[in-house]
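Anyone opening a protein record will find just a pair of labelled lines. With that in mind, the following record should read easily:
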Amino acid sequence: MKALVFHGPGQTSWQDVPDPAIRDASDAIVRVDAVTICGTDLHIVKGDVPEVAPGRILGHEAVGTVVETGGDVRGVRPGDRVLISCISACGRCRFCREGRYGQCRGGGGWVLGHTIDGTQAEYVRVPFADLSVHPLPSAVSSQDAVLLADIFPTAYEVGVLNGNVRPGDTVVVVGAGPIGLAAIATAQLYSPGRIMAVDLAASRLEAARDLGADATASADEEPERLVEDLTEGLGADVVIEAVGVPEAFEMCTRMVRPGGRVANIGVHGKPAALHLEDLWIKDITITTGLVDTHSTPMLLRMMAAGRLPGAAMVTHRFEPDQMEEAYEVFSRAGDTGALKVVLSGPQHDTLAVASGER
């Protein structure tokens, strides 16, 4: 089969690799019908995630069709159309029993495209299939569903829930890429008073407004002053960091009000300064986190009911063998206007009902 293989910082190739095979009785082999690229993948290619070894197939977000299952798998069977979660869960360890699947100590957590081969391939082996894939209703297209593999649960859990967004809050989202936009969309479930988006790219700020942001500011035009003006000098109740660079995190800590919350979603490859000399007296809460995906079933129901934006966040579509071109477009989002890119074959662009998949 073909797959996107990481060969070290700055080096990837779409190449022939062996087909995956069942290794454990809890595995499923899934044919990848639609796959996308995450900002975390860009961090890996840059060398920010040293745990990813050369030779690894990248990717952790996909929708596909089950082609084979191990003997212990009960929740899906060959022919089922499924969402592949970015997080795998053994279901037995302490953290899985607490619903904190991202911290799984039984061989799961974030493994796809990280410590085992991932989804940017024609086929993928998914461990712990009963807890790590979700059967898809026919009402949800593959290109919509793939957004539920990572960006929506990550934005909702690590941003909105960790940030404890409440009715009437002023919420600032720093970074209007796919995760930031998903945070804007899901923060509205809690009726905040206003949402402000900060980014360098005008196209992303426009997308933020389209998805419900009440105000936008360019990151290089004193957004902190706009926050002060909107809050009468108090600061934001919740600031969500969705970039993963030191400057963005430090900006967030300057924007938050006393007693407010900073929810860091971004994947950081470099140290960020924590100015405790200024922050110790402000009673603020700073949270970090890897998504657990405990919210995925609920978000899937909302997607099926039309309550979440789907295809509106997909700006570019490619064939699977255009993977390297898709990476180039996504990595230059400021120039290309890319939000979410999706790769799928023509037969998998929408629903797969005709072939009997459900």
Residues 2-150+292-355 form a domain with the Quinone Oxidoreductase; Chain A, domain 1 fold (CATH 3.90.180.10). Residues 349-358 have pLDDT under 50 and may be disordered. Residues 151-161 form the longest helix (11 residues).
